Amino acid sequence: MSKAAEHEFDTYAGYRAALLAAIDGAQREILLFDPDLKETGLESIAGAEALNRFLLRSSAREAIRLLLGDPEFLDRHCPRLTRLLELHGHRFAVRIDGNDRLHPLHQPFAVVDGHHLVTRFHQDRPRGKACPDDPAVCAPLVAQFETIWIGAEPGKSGAPLGI
Q1: CATH 3.40.190.10 fits 7-154, yes or no
Q2: Which of 96, 128, 139, 160 could form a disulfide with 155 if both were Cys (CB 3.0 to 4.6 A apart)?
Q3: Residue 161, pLDDT above cutoff 50
Q4: Is 147 helix (H, G, I), strand (E, B) or coil?
């Protein structure tokens, strides 16, 4: 299979479009690291619908793993994502890095199916790239994600408390 060309973007709109395209093509698993989700566009109608479609077609146990530095935006401003957590909490996991280990990365990214990368070069800027069908470029970020995931605290789950 030939590797698709890397695509660069320099606006948040370009980032959001690349992220939605990657989600639309996802089959198995999405790993997403973001400091706070503010610039992902996932709370938009299109973002939430893309994630829902993915969750319905994926058979992976933890189809979406979301690693955040700060959960405040998710907790206070993301009713669509919260609803997805309620509906698909058994396959949508959120963890929070409360020990500040994420901050050295400064690079938000999504790895889809271990082969497709969408990343911004720095969390404070929109410039980044999408690398479809490139497992070699994804591998180091997946390793970093897994290392941080192990020590991160569970975040919002959408599971009822049963009180």
Answers
A1: no
A2: 96
A3: no
A4: helix
